[in-house]
Structures are given as C-alpha cells and as structure tokens.
Amino acid sequence: MDDIEVEKITKRFGDFTAVDEISFTVGHGETFGLLGPNGAGKSTLIRMLTTLTPPTAGSARVLGHDVVREAGAVRKSIGVIPQVMTSDLDLTAEENMTIFARLYGVPKDRRKHVIRELLAAVQLADWLDKPVRTFSGGMRRRLEIARGLVHEPKIFFLDEPTTGLDPVSRVAVWEMIEQLKRERDLTVLITTHYLEEADKLCNRVAIVDHGKLVALDSPLKLKATIPGNNVLEVSFSRVPDGWSETLRALPEVSQVTATDHVFRIASNNGPRTTVELFEAARRADISVASLSVQSTTLDDVFVHYTGRQLRDAPQENLHYDMSFMYKPR
Amino acid sequence: MQRVWAIIERDLRKFQHSPFLMFASLVLPLSQLVILGYAFGGNLKHLKVGVVDQDGGMGAVKVREMLQAVGATAKTFSTVDYSNLGRAVSDLRNGRLNGVVDIPPHFTRDLLARADPRLGLVVDNTDNFTASTLEGTLTSLVNDYYLNGIDARRQPTLQLKTVEVYGYTPYIKFLFPGIIALSIFITAMIGGGIIFIDDKARGLHEGYLVTPITKTELILGFNLAGAFKGVLAGLVLTIFGSLIAGVPHPLDPMRTFKMLLVICPAATAFISMMFLLMVRISDPLVPRAIFGVLNTLLYFPSGAVYPVNAFPRWMRVIATVDPFTYAVHGFRTLLLKNTGFGAIAGDVAFLVVFSVIMTAAATALFQRTV
Ligand SMILES: Nc1ncnc2c1ncn2[C@@H]1O[C@H](COP(=O)(O)OP(=O)(O)OP(=O)(O)O)[C@@H](O)[C@H]1O
Ligand SMILES: [Mg+2]
C-alpha cells in the first residue's frame, strides 16, 4: 500500500473544473512535487487530500484512510502547511506551537519537549518566546513547518512553502525540509511553482496545468523524455516569412517554439545547431541579435508539456490576499 | 475538551497580548454614557419667553409676577416684555424667543366676571422638547393661579399626585444599564465579528480545520472565549459606570454576584448570535459594514435609551426577541432597584435559551470544509 493514493480526483466549482481526474500514488519516504503555474489547481488538490474540501468525483486515500469517509483518521496522521501563512502574529513562537499541540492532543508531558526539539530543528530555538509579529517571512515559514510536525505525523503536506521568500531563505527552507524528512522518516507532498525547488527536493514531480496532470516522473527522467539535450534561445534582427520552418529544418533540431520574436530551439547537438543557425541567418541576410545555449532544465520540460513558460503564468491568485487591510508583514 | 481549551487559550492569549479589544469595547460605551447621559438627562433651563400684556389690568400684573418668579427661582425661563404680539411672534420665529405668553385684552375683566378668562401660549413646535416643557410649566402655573390666586373659590377638577417609588432617577442612571449591555455587545462585534472573519480570511481557520478538532469543539471554544471577554468588559463597565452615573456602592459583592448572573448569559447570547450571523461569511468587510446596522437594530429598540412602551408596535416586536432588551432589563432591575433573584429570573432564562438556540443553529450551519 502506498502512503498516498489518488484516483481520478476531480473538483468543480460551478462549471469550472479546477482539478480534472488526477491520479497518482506516493510511496513511503518519497518527496513528491506538484509543479504548476498559478491557478493550476495545486492548492485545491492539496485541500482535497487534507480533508479541507470534499472532491466532486474520484477518491483519495492517505495511509489507507479515505479522505472523505475517514477524514478524522486522515487528519490525525498528516501534518499540513497551508499556502497562506497561518501562524498567529499576536502570539509567541512557543504559544503558536502549544495551541497546535493541544489541538492534536499531544500529552502535556511531551508537549514542551517536542516543541523545543522542533524549534531547534528549524533554528528558532532562540526565538521561542518572541512574538511572531517580529519574525521575517522565512522565520514564519520555518515556524509553521515546525508547527506542522508537532504531533509527529508521518505524512507532510506543504503548499508552496517558499513562495514569496527571498532566495537565501528559500534555500534554508529547502534544507530544513530535507533534513526533517530524513530524521523523521517522512513522506512529503509539496506544491511549488519554482522549478529549481522541484528539481532539488523531489524524487518525482507531477506537472499540473489547468487542473490536468500533464506529466509525472523523476526530474531526471522528465528531462530525458523531452527531445533535445540543449536549448537555444535566440533572437534575430528581423524575422523573415516562414522563419520557424527554416529553423526547424536545421540539422539536429527537434522542436521550435516562438514567443515574442524569441525562438526556443530544442536540439540534440547544441554546438552543431548553433553553427548552422548562423549560416542560415547569413543566407537570409539577417543577423543574430542574441543567443544563449543551455542544457535542458525542468523549465524546458514545462514548456514542452504545456506550450508556455512557467513565468508567463497569470499572476498571483488573490483569493486570500488581504494584505491591503493590514500592516506589512 | 483539551481541544476546546486550545481554542480558548489561543483567543485569550491573543487578547492578553493586544488589549486593544478591551479598550475599544470600553471607550465607546463610557463616552456614550457621559455624553448622552448628560445631554438628554437635564431639565431644560434658560429659555426665553416673551410676554405681551394687552390687558394692563391687575390680573395681568399678577400673571407677570408669577412668570417672573419662575424665572428667578427655577430658572426654567426668563421673561422679556413686548408691547406688540406681532413683534414677539416674529422674534419667536427668528429664534430669539422660545415662547410667547399672550395676555389678551379684557383678561382682568373676564377674570373678575368669571367669564372663562384665557391666556395664550405661542410655541415653536419644531422643537417639541422645549414646547412641551413650556406648556407643562405654564399649565401648572395657571392651575396654581386659579387655585391660590384670585379665583380661590373655583373647585379643582382633578388633582394628580405622583408617588415616586425609587426616588428621583436621573437620565444617566436610566441609560447606564443599556451601556453595560452595549459594551458586552461591542466585545462580541469585534471579537466574534471582525477578528473572527479576519482570521478566517487570513486562512487561520484552515490551520485549525486540518487538525482533528470537531466543529462542535471549535464553536464551543470560540463561544466560551468570546463570552469570557464579554463578561470582563461587562464587569469593568459596571464598576466604572457606577462611579460615573452615581450608582451607590459600585463594589457591593451581592449585587456584583447578581450582576454576573445576567452578564454571563448576556455575553453568551451576544457572542453566539454573532457567530450565527458570521458562520457563512468570509468577506472581512461584512462585519464592519453591518456593525452600525446591528447596533441600531438591537440597541435602540431594547429600551436602553428610551422606554419600550413609547415605541410603535413593530418596534416592540423587535424588542421582544432582542437579547438586548432582557440584558438591559436585568441590569436596570439590579442597578436601580437592587431587587432579588425573582426579578431577573425571566431575563436570565430568556438569555440562556437564546444562547442555546443560537449555538445550535451556528453548529448546524458551520461548514468544516472550505
Ligand atoms: N472556492 C473556490 N471557488 C471557486 N473557484 C475556486 C475556488 N478555489 C479555487 N478556485 C479556482 O480554482 C483554480 C485553481 O485554484 P488553486 O488555488 O487550486 O490554484 P493553485 O494551483 O494553488 O494556484 P496558486 O499557485 O495561485 O496557489 C483557480 O482558477 C481558482 O480561481
Ligand atoms: Mg495554491
């Protein structure tokens, strides 16, 4: 039995389908990534798996418990970090943890010990009695990660744990998640729209777009499945008619996509294609304005499967953004 | 039960760390008590009354003497003599006078002939308070005049003597019980309305809902924590308000105990009503928008500021189902009459039943999913 088993799970809001017949399983000890742009349906999927939203169709089991019929058993066995920061600003780090320890029924004599241990693990031991109001975004996130583990669950759900953090804090959070997972033998399901994050943390990645699962494999295999070992990003002084076709006909080229005069060319042999590219440009009497050659990344995988780049995705879903009503941080 | 306590603990710690809620729920009621209490409480004084003597006889002189006497002693009004009724009325219209007493020609003659002598009173009826004060003062004056004055033989037709059972109650004391209820209500509005919905919109509730807590535990926790804060506000206001309104022995232990018997169910009633109203709301603007509406709809019809008996029927219907009415009645009974348990039993019973119904309805409507 796998730790998480998802079977054709679907969520509709009215006639809008946010999650569309997604199926996958997550084995014990795995770190599983859900990668997708804003509005892809990642949070909705996590909400269904963590019993917050009932699925419209399909089913899911966590540690063998059905998320609808045995919601209570599921809740006891999972730790959840929602996408929005939910630590209480008016309380101290320890108070925040204590409330959740009590909500999970952690016995009083264990509480203090567990809380101290976890706060030390996320390097907040010195901030135990400081109000969360004084924390940076990264510290809040780490506190929430510790809070999610206060009842020592075996399965840990994290919804975009690093969104909005600066690069340094982001790396710190990744390292903490990896370490906690190792020390506590966790199964982790994490959503993200950072490709490096999925690449670095996850054993397997599911790419989700418009509610649909479009690809699922290890980052390595995903990169291997797409055509080409290199990606050329190139722009020209002028774009003649039928230029895409000309580029596609160059040797070793497997795919060409164009966005705003920038051509992405997947190639099995970067250097060779580059030479031919300049030759073709000379023949057409145009010049190469810019050129970069990279080896394939998850980014390219994403483009391959969804036809667009992750960073082109529509901006932040504002559903929960109330920042306008509050003081910053 | 452990989980209920977790919710309560969280709420009270939050409260302890940011006592703004307490402050807010005391300042508005206390300032209302002072401002409204003194603004509406006093008798009207220093009005100006024009006197037009078109008679000039000794009957008229007597009337003018009596009017001046009122001005000198009760200070309700002072008199200004006019020779011309038209000018006096025009000054009344311009707001230079509050009323005009007209002593018509032949007043003394009619008086002596006992031919139904009449005095005229012209009032500015855009201001009914002033008009009725003047009318009342002059009526009693005229009665005195006939009884003790020249026409001593005339029999009084009706004599009404009012017996006051509790001694004179100034308006500020009348208002005070409503103000206590108001402070509890504001605590519920802020804690159970604004803060509750803000937490929900910020996703804090999502954090709770992924834990094994049941919805009954969650609502019970929120209700008890909210009620506790309401009780605190009610108690503090009872003590400070007593000092301001001049209720004797603000710390009388027996009365404080009886007050708690009403404050506790009142706080529970308000907070549980708030949760029922907010159970399906997620927009943080809603509680802010309905704050004023709810206040007007529940506070004013309750008899807190004006006796319920003076209201039209539809408003008395609101008063009947309004928890404010019972809270105010209970507080008023205890603070102004200092009676026993029997007098508040009905109020307490209503508030308890009301709380139970509200909590049950909120629990039924609460969605554990988001
Ligand atoms: N309660 C709801 N009612 C209606 N539509 C909803 C609701 N919740 C989510 N949606 C819609 O479902 C889609 C998927 O939303 P979801 O929050 O799952 O996306 P996401 O992948 O988590 O995006 P993000 O990266 O912004 O967090 C969005 O178009 C969103 O507007
Ligand atoms: Mg999301």
List the helices and strands and how they pair.
The complex is a heterodimer of chains A (329) and B (370).
Chain A (H helix, E strand, L loop, with lengths): L3 E10 L2 E11 L4 E5 L6 H8 L7 E6 L2 E2 L4 H7 E4 L11 H11 L4 H14 L15 H12 L6 E5 L7 H18 L2 E6 L2 H7 L2 E6 L2 E6 L1 H7 L4 E7 L6 H6 L4 E7 L2 E6 L2 H14 L4 E8 L2 H9 L23
Parallel strand pairs in A: 3-8, 3-9, 6-7, 7-8
Antiparallel strand pairs in A: 1-2, 1-4, 4-5, 9-10, 11-13, 11-14, 12-13
Helix pairs in contact in A: 3-4, 3-5, 5-6
Chain B lengths: L1 H16 L2 H22 L5 E7 L4 H16 L3 E6 L2 H9 L5 E5 L3 H6 L7 E4 L4 H21 L22 H31 L2 H6 L5 H31 L7 H26 L6 H15 L13 H9 L1 H15 L4 H24 L5
Parallel strand pairs in B: 1-2, 1-3
Antiparallel strand pairs in B: 3-4
The complex binds adenosine-5'-triphosphate and magnesium ion.
CATH superfamily of the largest domain in chain A: P-loop containing nucleotide triphosphate hydrolases
Number of helical elements of chain B: 14
Overall structural domain count of chain A:
2
Figure out the total of helices of chain A: 11
Description:
The complex is a heterodimer of chains A (329) and B (370). By secondary structure, chain A is an alpha/beta fold. Chain A folds into two domains: 4-218, P-loop containing nucleotide triphosphate hydrolases (Rossmann fold, 3-Layer(aba) Sandwich); 227-295, YebC, transcriptional regulation domain (Alpha-Beta Plaits, 2-Layer Sandwich), CATH 3.30.70. Helices cover 34% and strands 27% of the residues of chain A. Chain A has helices at 42-49, 71-77, 93-103, 108-121, 137-148, 167-184, 195-201, 219-225, 243-248, 270-283, 298-306, and strands spanning 4-13, 16-26, 31-35, 57-62, 65-66, 78-81, 155-159, 187-192, 204-209, 212-217, 230-236, 253-259, 262-267, 288-295. In chain A, β7 (155-159), α6 and β8 (187-192) form a beta-alpha-beta unit. In chain A, α5 packs parallel to α6 (167-184). The longest helix of chain A has 18 residues, at 167-184. The radius of gyration of chain A is 23 Å and the shape is elongated. The two termini of chain A are 42 Å apart. Mean pLDDT of chain A is 87; it is low at 312-329. With 370 residues, chain B is mostly helical. Helices cover 67% and strands 6% of the residues of chain B. Chain B contains 14 helices and four strands. Chain B has helices spanning 2-17, 20-41, 58-73, 85-93, 107-112, 128-148, 171-201, 204-209, 215-245, 253-278, 285-299, 313-321, 323-337, 342-365; strands at residues 47-53, 77-82, 99-103, 120-123. Chain B has a four-stranded mixed β-sheet with strand order 2-1-3-4, with helices on both faces. In chain B, α3 (58-73) links the parallel β1 and β2. The relative contact order of chain B is 0.12. Mean pLDDT of chain B is 85; it is low at 150-162. Classes of the chains: A alpha/beta (329), B mainly alpha (370). Chain A binds chain B through residues 47, 50-54, 72, 75-76, 78, 80, 82-86, 88, 90-91, 95, 98-100, 102-105, 131, 320, 322, 325, and chain B through 2-3, 5-7, 9-10, 13-14, 17-18, 198, 201-204, 206-213, 284, 369-370. The complex binds adenosine-5'-triphosphate (ATP) and magnesium ion (MG). The site of magnesium ion has 5 residues of chain A, from α1.
